[in-house]
């Protein structure tokens, strides 16, 4: 006949094995597993191994009642320990993710310039306001003013007495700073 302590040891080892299997399923068969789930599966595997080996060693040294006591102690310690460790790992991973997102979030949009009446409403005032808002250089502001007047790149180059490639370089930087893709987008942004 099987003693109660043998049944207790087997039941407790089976409980730990079931928890280990559940941790494996959470870690490897979920769509969105994380590092905390992998670590928890490792802790459950180690706990299961320690419980089996420790129970066998306790049975050989002291008898089945010692094996049952060891298995019970291992279960009582493992369940809260694994829950606390997994919670700590998840909190630490979430804090790292938040820090990463804060570090890599997009830059804030430029602060809106003061009211239009403070700058005026003419093309020169509009160009000056946009130049301050988007940190344009003086030459980029001149190119922007000429483009707003409807001049072509070649006409702007002649007016500013620079090469066509220089005007194109200024225009590329204006597009990049203002976040537009072409001349029409630029004019739409200026007129809005």
Descriptors for this entry?
192 residues, mainly alpha, Arc Repressor Mutant, subunit A, 2 domains, 9 helices
Structural overview:
The protein is mostly helical and 192 residues long. The protein has 9 helices and no strands. 79% of the residues lie in helices and 0% in strands. Helix 1 runs antiparallel to helix 2, helix 2 packs antiparallel against helix 3 and helix 5 crosses helix 6. The chain is rod-shaped and about 105 Å long. The chain starts with a helix and ends with a helix. The model has no long low-confidence stretch (mean pLDDT 84).
In short:
Helix content is 79%, strand content 0%. With 192 residues, it is an all-alpha fold.
Write the layout of secondary structure elements.
Layout: H1 4-28, H2 35-62, H3 64-103, H4 116-119, H5 123-133, H6 138-148, H7 153-160, H8 164-178, H9 183-191
